[in-house]
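Handout, section B. The chain below has 487 residues.
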Amino acid sequence: MRLSYLAYTFSLVIKYFSIVLFFPVIVALWYKEYFSIPPFLISVITAVIMAFVIKRSVSGAKNIKSVNDIKKSEGLAVVTFSWIFAGLFASIPYMFMDITPINALFEGFSGITATGATAFKSFDYPHALLFWRSFTQWLGGMGIIVLFIAVLPQLAIAGRQLFFAEAPGPTEEKFTPRIKSTAAALWKIYAGLTLLCFVLITNMGMGFFEGLCTSFSTMSGGGFSPNPDSLIGQSHNILWVITFFMFFAGTSFNLQHRAWMKLNPLVLFRNEEFRMYFYAVVVIAFLLAFSLFANMHYTFSDSMVHAFFNVSSLISSTGFCSVDFAKWDYTSKILLFAVMLFGSCASSAGGGLKVTRWLLIFKIMKSEMMKILHPKAVYNIKIGNYTIPKEIMYQTLMFVSFYFAFIVLSAFLIAMLEKDTIVAVVGSVAAVGNIGPGLGQVIGPMGSFADLSVGTKIIFIIDMLAGRLELIPFLVLFQKDLWIFKR
């Protein structure tokens, strides 16, 4: 790995990340909360200085003008380190608001990874900080590297390795000839849906600031809300609108782009992954609605809106809640836990294991069972019209093994620290899947991670980062070959 290329690209990302730290300053000026400006200016200065020092201190980095031949290992390292330091810079403003360093780190990483687990116990903070919580989710939802590929000419060609190192999902699908154009198209769809969500919910009665933050958190699959009660108490109309946008936050933006370009929504249903995602939401939501109607004695209308809202929220890894589902009956909570394990579509803002991987696993299982009955038969596994190479099948099985091993290891360590199995198991699933809230009273939708031990919070921070990076770039850091540097 060439240290000069790594230093140049990393410093570029950090330098431009410092620009987004000015947005909360604008919010502070708008609301005349001038006391909240210095924390963000300190973060900006820190980021700029770090970018300058890295570029100047590494031999050869300052002379590089292009990184078009950046290697895959270098791309993985840049993406991983960029997300780590983005989380650190995102945490700095919290430290100036009487929030402990570990809680600030937790909140910062939860925001930038679009997880939405919170260490807040009070929401009596300036507008700039509450805006920053939701805005970091919006940046992280589509990907900070994907954003910079879209806007920086220095990454026009080299962005391919960075794009696929960060892009969520098991495939390397692109829908335009150039990665830069692909990244720009993804962000246009993403920003357009965010704007549409904001316009609709504010016209339905939600306040301007709350609507802005909610729109950021909805389309990012994040779930941070400036309201301590999340979306509890909102009208059914607003909940249905947010349900719609959460659902599409968990849908492939590549697929949405194709549907938009052809002006044909049926393009969505021709995709096997989308159909499985759609049917999972509908079937589980109807089962949940029946459970709420029968066991919790909700009205038919309340059963439907809360079922579809919370299923869409968890399957897209958003983490909003329309009611405190920690108080629901056992059957309803089991259905929600199943949704948490399911995940969203590849190339979406959502987290989790991803529908494509579940689809491929089911096809592999079916193929192996058919081989028992017909040993001499040859079976090609397809998703849509594409035959899946054995290499992709092996990588998928490896990823699934790592994914659940990560959850089991985290749950084991946290169970020893907290002496609470619910916090350990559900919290690990929620953190690695970037879902946010769990199901218990402690870390449920109305709970907080603030009272957990420092060790538990550190494990959850690692889980959130590894989950957002889809494990592989994160695990690559522990390979010694990565740390062999060349000039």
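Note. The chain is about 65% helix and 0% strand. Compare this with the example in section A.
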